[in-house]
Design goal:
With 187 residues, this protein is of the alpha+beta class. The protein folds into two domains: 2-29 and 109-185, Topoisomerase I, Chain A, domain 4 (Orthogonal Bundle), CATH 1.10.132.20; 37-104, Gyrase A, domain 2 (2-Layer Sandwich), CATH 3.30.1360.40. The protein contains four helices and six strands. Strands 3-4-6-5 form a four-stranded antiparallel beta sheet, covered by helices on one side. Strands 1-2 form a two-stranded antiparallel ribbon. Strand 5 and strand 6 (101-104) form a beta hairpin.
Length: 187
């Protein structure tokens, strides 16, 4: 029975870790006034009929704090890349000079900063909900084991451990959110 509890705990911790990794990935996409090639992660381009990540068809780099440069490896990819950026609705209009696509990030207004903080808070809330769902599922598995003959003390200990993991990961989410909010609100 203890092996089964260990497996449940390890599974819960691993899944919670994945929720944190997902949050980190989503927060890097939220721009804080500084150009970053990561802002285009998840953006796909129609590459000869198949959706392909933009960084697999072009060199994406930050020229300076306000400019992202996208240099396709094939010249005929300029239009599809430009189209996918417009379709992604990231609030930036691409500038195409026939060789390179440049994205000029406008300076953030106070309203836009508050909007971005709300967006990052919403991502954090999604992560917290995911972590709580993982906790619920793990506790259900422990209760099922208890019905199958696990002692009540062992069950309570496992539930306590699951709650400790939950608290730990929710505090990590809060730390990420406060750091992102500070980054966004810094002018």
């Amino acid at each position: 029975m203890n092996e089964e509890i260990d497996i449940i705990l390890a599974e819960a911790e691993d899944t919670m870790q994945k929720a944190i990794a997902h949050l980190e990935a989503e927060l890097t996409k939220i721009r804080a006034g500084k150009a970053s090639p990561n802002m285009l992660d998840g953006l796909t381009v129609d590459y000869y009929g198949s959706p392909t990540a933009i960084n697999q068809v072009a060199n994406v780099s930050a020229l300076d704090a306000r400019t992202i440069s996208i240099q396709p490896w094939e010249k005929n990819m300029l239009a599809p890349i430009e189209r996918s950026i417009l379709m992604a609705n990231i609030g930036i209009t691409p500038q195409n000079d026939g060789v390179v696509i440049r994205l000029f990030l406008p300076p953030l207004t106070e309203e836009r900063r508050i909007e971005l903080v709300k967006k990052s808070s919403a991502e954090g809330e999604h992560s917290k909900v995911a972590i709580r769902n993982i906790r619920r599922d793990a506790i259900e598995k422990v209760k099922k084991l208890q019905k199958d003959g696990l002692s009540e003390d062992a069950s309570k200990d496992a539930e306590t451990s699951i709650q400790e993991y939950t608290d730990k990961f929710i505090s990590i989410v809060d730390k990420h959110l406060s750091a992102k909010e500070k980054e966004i609100m810094t002018v």
